[in-house]
User: Fold these one by one.
Assistant:
Number 1:
Amino acid sequence: MNANRVKQILSSSANIEVKYNGASVWIDQLNEDGKTATVHLRGPLEERSNVDIGELVED
């Protein structure tokens, strides 16, 4: 995924499914470097991780 698509998903009101390593995640923010994003797993666990946006896949 690229930075522009991450920004589009963040600004969208639609429920767009994104996966990281096969797990469904919510994107919280695109980080200042434009190459990583803060995400958390969908569900009760809200542990946040910084991941390379190249590893995010739109489902």
Note: The domain at 3-58 is CATH 2.30.30 (SH3 type barrels.).
Number 2:
Amino acid sequence: MLIRTTDPFRELDRLTAHLLGTTGTTNRPAAMPMDAWREGDRFVLELDLPGVSRDSIDIDVERNVLTVRAERLARNGDWEALASERPRGMFSRQLVLGDNLDLDRIEASYADGVLRLVVPVAEKAKPRKVEISGARDDEKTAIEA
């Protein structure tokens, strides 16, 4: 069973954060923690969104800005909060992605409270061979760009 205790300083912090519209300072988790890494010809992003419904997640790409929005709703019905430390409401995170990524082929999946985005490297950004022609057409050599 959860025992309800009152900490006047913590309650004051929560009230101040609520009134100012901030997430608080010490005991609040980051709204959307993220890990990012490269695997070969693709970039992978994972964002933690525990308790968020898949239907409330919105992913937009405009030019080279990726925006992720999600909403964690408060419970409805006849209940009394005993502890309320997880932030609720709308969360948003924007990432500026480089021109070397193919933003038209982003793949997204959501499982176990983790949003996974896979962004492939654009074909134009991959290494390729360039032919060099000499004075005669039969003197061609390939070099790597």
Note: The beta strands are 34-39, 42-48, 58-62, 65-72, 89-96, 107-111, 114-120, 129-133, 140-144.
